[in-house]
Design brief:
Elements (H helix, E strand, L loop, with lengths): L6 E9 L4 E3 L5 E3 L3 H7 L8 E11 L6 H16 L7 E7 L5 H11 L7 E4 L12 H14 L4 E2 L3 E4 L2 E4 L3 E3 L8 E3 L12 E2 L18 E5 L7 H8 L6 E6 L7 H6 L7 E5 L16 H6 L3 E2 L5 H18 L1
Helix pairs in contact: 2-3, 3-8
Length: about 325
């Protein structure tokens, strides 16, 4: 009988449903530490696995601020660059609430595209004290995936949830309570298991992510007959925003009234679509057609949902600010 090579998995806790129990009023609130969650998942039964835990924060992810994402990115960077693990690092798992997991996942993708070990996000739709919680299975699946990789191999950040392994970029929450609460919106279905490759960077070469705090990127949704009222307020505000995402109609079109309001702005604009699948395709003419938006300098969000396109613009703005 062969024994797997001992390796370390870092599990970072942030709260979320996976840590929730019901209080005296029956409300779900984050209350369990990451050690409790790891114990409930029986990670000690995975051969060769050495778990290192850290409670970064404990909150409902709907309350997540940019400052909190900065704290999480710093914790991920620290986990990747530590040199005092007892066994080689196999990967990092970020336990996260589902409401804004897609935003944090996108930040992980943008800031750590070449991490020397895989970075995974997972959580739960049912709380810690549910008679049949789904969190333990999700966490065990994530840890098992890391331990199954050849030593020294990695792949891009993933969301592991409901039996699915989905790329962090392009995956968003699409069901409020189903065990399979996340879906991938890319042009084709991802592989069942992501293909791994030898790590290209040493942990010591990873730059620390620049902070997002203090930046502002907003999302505006286009609807039939939309006025320019909200856009006018944004464009005339004393505090200049750092970017704008438009959740457009169809393949990337907006009412003409919105185009006029955006004609003289200096911040970057990314156009996504409110349609779940298919992505943006700038082909239609007319004042609000996608072709006109592209000629006006607006960028395509391609297959990204607006929530993740916003994080992309935030990360770009953070890098630009750090270089100034």
């Amino acid at each position: 009988m062969t024994h797997p090579e001992p390796r370390t998995v870092v599990v970072l806790g942030t709260g979320g449903t996976i840590s929730c129990t019901r209080n005296a009023q029956g409300d779900l609130t984050p209350s369990r530490r990451i050690e409790d969650i790891v114990t409930q998942a029986h990670l000690d039964q995975i051969p060769g696995l050495h778990v290192v835990t850290h409670d970064v924060m404990s909150l409902d992810s709907s309350a997540l601020r940019l400052e909190d994402i900065d704290t999480l990115m710093s914790a991920v960077h620290t986990a990747l660059t530590r040199t005092d693990y007892l066994t080689p690092l196999a990967g990092v798992i970020l336990i996260h609430g589902t409401d804004t997991m897609e935003e944090t996942a996108m930040a992980v993708h943008e800031f750590f595209p070449d991490a020397p070990v895989p970075l995974l996000l997972t959580g739960a739709q049912r709380p810690f004290d549910d008679p049949h919680p789904d969190g333990p299975v999700n966490l065990r699946t994530a840890a098992g995936l890391l331990m199954s990789l050849p030593a020294g191999h990695t792949f891009p950040p993933q969301i592991v949830f409901g039996g699915l392994i989905l790329p962090a970029q392009g995956t968003t929450k699409t069901h409020t309570h189903s065990d399979q609460g996340f879906s991938f919106s890319g042009p084709s279905d991802p592989p069942r298991v992501p293909a791994s490759h030898p790590a290209r960077l040493m942990a010591s070469d990873l730059p620390a992510p620049p902070p997002l705090s203090g930046l502002s990127v907003e999302i505006i949704e286009a609807c039939a007959g939309s006025s320019s009222l909200v856009l006018d307020a944004i464009c005339s505000a004393e505090q200049q925003i750092d970017g704008l995402v438009i959740s457009a109609l169809g393949s990337g079109n907006v009412p003409p009234t919105m185009v006029k309001a955006l004609s003289n702005v200096s911040f970057p604009i990314m156009v996504c679509t409110r349609v779940p699948r298919g992505g943006v395709n700038f082909i239609y003419g007319g004042d609000g057609g996608g072709a006109a938006l592209q000629r006006a300098g607006m960028r395509s969000g391609e297959h990204l949902r607006p929530s993740q396109a916003r994080v992309r613009l935030l990360c770009e703005a953070a890098h630009h600010r750090a270089q100034d």
